[in-house]
């Protein structure tokens, strides 16, 4: 059974720092991996989607990498801002058309 | 990106009553919709998968008679929490996928259910 783990559970950094969020999954035979942002009491905002054949995806200050063989993904946030404060969720899809399996998330707090 | 609209965003109901939550794909046809539940400080847990025109597939431990799912059209799925109890209080969120080509999952805004 696929399990997704995110480390750390919480992270506090001053504004301007670059940071890395980690995600690991137990079954490397995934279809794709997606990173989301969730603000308190809100729904999910999709940040980046990486297909199993891809190594990384970039959007603005965000860069996500995927090492399928080792069951790992990282989300790199450059020059963090207070507006980046939120919970970041990593989720994998094992097969096309199936549901995403989520990690518990990393709650990020960026202080000004 | 595609838009998924979920309604209501929050609801308070009395124990024993039923609550219906709607999930609509506004600009694409969703052949498959997923319903998740999220308890405070926990991750999203899949409750069920619904395909248009067929019965939903429920995850282990989810009572199908309590959480009724209807996916009558390619743009609408509903989750009805029947005979709600305080322990059903949670954040419910739906996700839709076109199922063909585009493999990205799009999520609704979520519904905060409080049963008193």
Present the secondary structure layout.
The complex is a heterodimer of chains A (112) and B (116).
Chain A: E1 4-7, E2 10-14, E3 19-25, E4 32-38, E5 44-51, E6 56-59, E7 62-67, E8 72-77, E9 86-93, E10 100-102, E11 106-111
Parallel strand pairs in A: 2-11
Antiparallel strand pairs in A: 1-3, 3-8, 4-5, 4-9, 6-7, 7-8, 9-10, 9-11
Chain B: E1 4-7, E2 10-13, E3 19-25, E4 32-38, E5 45-51, E6 57-58, E7 67-73, E8 76-81, E9 90-97, E10 106-107, E11 111-115
Describe the structure.
The complex is a heterodimer of chains A (112) and B (116). Chain A has 112 residues and is mainly beta. Helices cover 0% and strands 57% of the residues of chain A. Chain A has strands spanning 4-7, 10-14, 19-25, 32-38, 44-51, 56-59, 62-67, 72-77, 86-93, 100-102, 106-111. In chain A, strands 2, 4, 5, 9, 10 and 11 form a 6-stranded mixed beta sheet that branches. Chain A is globular, with a radius of gyration of 13 Å. The mean pLDDT of chain A is 95. With 116 residues, chain B is mainly beta. Chain B has strands spanning 4-7, 10-13, 19-25, 32-38, 45-51, 57-58, 67-73, 76-81, 90-97, 106-107, 111-115. Chain B is built from no helices and 11 strands. In chain B, a hairpin with a 5-residue loop joins β5 and β6 (57-58). The mean pLDDT of chain B is 91. Chains A and B meet through β4, β5, β9 and β10 of A and β4, β5, β9 and β10 of B.
């Amino acid at each position: 059974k696929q399990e997704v783990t995110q480390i750390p559970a919480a992270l506090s950094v001053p504004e301007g720092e670059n940071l890395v969020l980690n995600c690991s999954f137990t079954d490397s035979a995934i279809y794709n991996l997606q990173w989301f942002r969730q603000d308190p009491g809100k729904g999910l905002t999709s940040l980046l989607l990486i297909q199993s054949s891809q190594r990384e995806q970039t959007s603005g200050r965000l860069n996500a990498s995927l090492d399928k063989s080792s069951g790992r993904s990282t989300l790199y946030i450059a020059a963090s801002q207070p507006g980046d404060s939120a919970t970041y969720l990593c989720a994998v899809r094992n097969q096309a058309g199936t549901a995403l399996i989520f990690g518990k998330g990393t709650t990020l707090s960026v202080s000004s | 990106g595609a838009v998924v609209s979920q309604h209501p965003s929050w609801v308070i109901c009395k124990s024993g009553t039923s609550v219906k939550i709607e999930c609509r794909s506004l600009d694409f046809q969703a052949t498959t919709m997923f319903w998740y539940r999220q308890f405070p400080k926990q991750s999203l847990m899949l409750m069920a998968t619904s395909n248009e025109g067929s019965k939903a597939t429920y995850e282990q431990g989810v009572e199908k008679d309590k959480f009724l799912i209807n996916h009558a059209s390619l743009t609408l799925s509903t989750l009805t929490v029947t005979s709600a109890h305080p322990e059903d209080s949670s954040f419910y969120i739906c996700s839709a996928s076109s199922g063909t080509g585009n493999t990205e999952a799009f999520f609704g805004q979520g519904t905060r259910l409080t049963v008193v």
